[in-house]
Automatic annotation (TrEMBL):
SUPFAM superfamilies: Phosphoenolpyruvate/pyruvate domain (SSF51621)
PROSITE patterns referenced in this protein's UniProt entry, alphabetically: ISOCITRATE_LYASE
GO molecular function terms attached to this record: methylisocitrate lyase activity
InterPro entries in the cross-refs: ICL/PEPM, Isocitrate_lyase_ph_CS, Pyrv/PenolPyrv_kinase-like_dom, Pyrv_kinase-like_dom_sf
Domain of life assignment: Eukaryota
TM region(s), chain numbering: none
Protein name: Phosphoenolpyruvate/pyruvate domain-containing protein
Catalytic activity field: (2S,3R)-3-hydroxybutane-1,2,3-tricarboxylate = pyruvate + succinate
Pfam families: PEP_mutase
Homology family: Belongs to the isocitrate lyase/PEP mutase superfamily.
Length: 306
């Protein structure tokens, strides 16, 4: 099964002592296509980006399981050889709902997902005022996900995320992560790390469980590069809002140009060709491959070109 292969490939990456998985955050088909074209070997579907792109809303727990799972599945389906790690928020309810969420993510071909310990009306991990469930409730979420994974005979990687650092302190956060690992989580994710010393300490305290590092521009966590993250011992590094903020900046610039000048001037590559023309985007999204497939199957839809 494609979904099993994707998860197994991610597990192989995590088992490789020389490998740190670097994931750009993508939120739709176009940003995912760009990341794939550049050559990343894993992607991250951001929940914040999904809320912004699908709903035009902030990351305040407004997305449903269907919003998230459908988006994750679309991204995972673009290239089944590239594992997709996806945000699953709180699992969207109690143990029954978490199990259903896990099943949906598995069927969508997602390689890994993370579940957190915030209340259902959650918020971005780099905002203030986060409210948490108690440790038994968090552990029940992870246990339900692990049970559903076993029932589905899946290899999907379960990532336990805690947001306890902000309000409960480091020791409580690590205690929650250890309890989650005992319940079936494969990777530990301490959100909202505030110092490089904490980055290093949690890897040591959670060993041998692999740890995930979240690099949020404008957030509370100091930014480190891939080399530094690897030296600290991290196995997965997310840059979750890379796609979202890039689109925001570029779209703002284009809209301001159109509003102020009445036109958008072409951008040019070094070879003098237009950069980002409509055909460039279509080719990125598989235009030639689609035309060729139609031809190979005996179709004539594009016999006169495209």
């Amino acid at each position: 099964m494609a979904q099993t292969k994707s998860a197994s490939k991610l597990r192989q990456m995590l088992a490789d002592p020389e490998k740190t998985v670097i994931c750009p955050g993508v939120h739709d088909g176009l940003t995912a296509r760009v990341a794939l074209n550049v050559g990343f070997d894993a992607l991250y579907m951001t929940g914040a980006g999904t809320a912004a792109s699908r709903l035009g809303q902030p990351d305040l727990g407004l997305t449903t399981v269907d919003d998230m799972a459908t988006n994750a599945g679309m991204i995972a389906g673009l290239d089944r050889s590239v594992p997709v790690i996806a945000d699953a928020d709180t699992g969207f309810g109690g143990p029954l709902m978490v199990a259903r969420t896990t099943e949906k993510y598995i069927l969508q071909g997602v390689a890994a997902f993370h579940i957190e310990d915030q209340v259902t009306t959650k918020r971005c991990g780099h905002l203030g005022g986060k409210e948490l469930v108690d440790t038994p409730t968090f552990v029940a979420r992870i246990r339900a996900a692990a049970s559903a994974r076993s029932r589905m005979e899946s290899d999907i990687v379960i990532i336990a995320r805690t947001d306890a650092l902000q309000s409960r302190g480091y020791e409580e956060a690590v205690s929650r992560l250890k309890a989650a690992v005992e319940a079936g989580a494969d990777v530990a994710f301490l959100e909202g790390i505030q110092t490089k010393e904490q980055m290093a300490q949690v890897v040591k305290d959670m060993a041998p469980t692999p740890c995930l590092l979240n690099m949020v521009g404008g957030g509370v966590t100091p930014l480190v590069n891939a080399r530094e993250a690897k030296e600290l011992g991290y196995k997965i590094v997310l840059w979750p809002i890379a796609g979202m903020t890039s689109v925001y900046i570029a779209m703002r610039e284009f809209c301001e140009e159109l509003k102020n000048t009445g036109e958008i001037k072409n951008r040019y590559k070094e070879d003098g060709k237009i950069d980002g023309g409509v055909r460039d985007v279509f080719e990125l999204c598989g235009l030639s491959a689609c035309v060729e497939f139609d031809k190979e199957m005996g179709g004539a839809s594009f016999a006169n070109g495209a």
